[in-house]
User: Fold this.
Amino acid sequence: MKKFHILTIFPEFFEGFANTGIVSKAVKKGLVYLNTVNLRDYTTDKHRTVDDVVYGGGPGMLLKPEPIFRAYEEISKEKKPYVLITEPWGRRFDQKFAQELSEKDEIMIICGRYEGVDERVKAIVDQEVSIGDFVLSGGEPAALVIMDAVIRLIPGVVGDEDSLRVDSFSDGLVGYPNYTRPPVFNGMEVPQILRSGNHKLIELWRRWKQIENTYKKRPDLLKKADLSEKDKKILHYIKKGKKFEDFISDNKV
Ligand code: ADE
Assistant:
């Protein structure tokens, strides 16, 4: 079972997440344990103070180190977790990072505040993590994003179909377009190939679309993508502005 310990001043933020969809099923199946830790429960003063002013001056308040250390020490008595802290300038969270985290048994996420956290907290942190180059008011949405991406990688959490989709992202390309019924909607038709029943052709068309979408939407991904000789040929056609039909007839598929 994978355990997440989330240190936060807003534990209620995670209620909807823990009780919805795939995550809730994973919890019920005993595959995931979500331990939301209210930092106020680890304060010792009457007002349950979790933050304080900045030494040397400056705007805003910082999260105090003591409640965080106390919570960490209690969690570590059982097993030392891998510790993350959400920071806008941390290591960029991506699928590879999610995969690495899916291999850890216990993960603790300290939800930072945008003003910051006392620097001494870094003594217990293994990795600072960011979900993108923008500033959130707190780390809670980032922790939620990270947990969602990691939980769906745990074996048994999602069905085969979804795992395949992750695999297609892992090979570094954008996905192919999908359609459901009806076959014609507002004059827009589902591509004929998908209704042809020709599975080899469908597979090829989907690969073409993946490469085309990546070229159009995320050309940066193509540099790192794992392309076969056939993929490179497809890309060459796309770059020349040729159509899928040209590829089919030129290559006698
Ligand atoms: N805290 C504030 N902004 C953040 C971001 N972009 N990623 C992770 N944590 C944050």
In short: The longest strand covers residues 82-92. Residues 173 and 194 are 20 Å apart (CA to CA). Strands lie at 2-8, 32-38, 51-53, 61-63, 82-92, 106-110, 127-130, 184-185, 188-189.
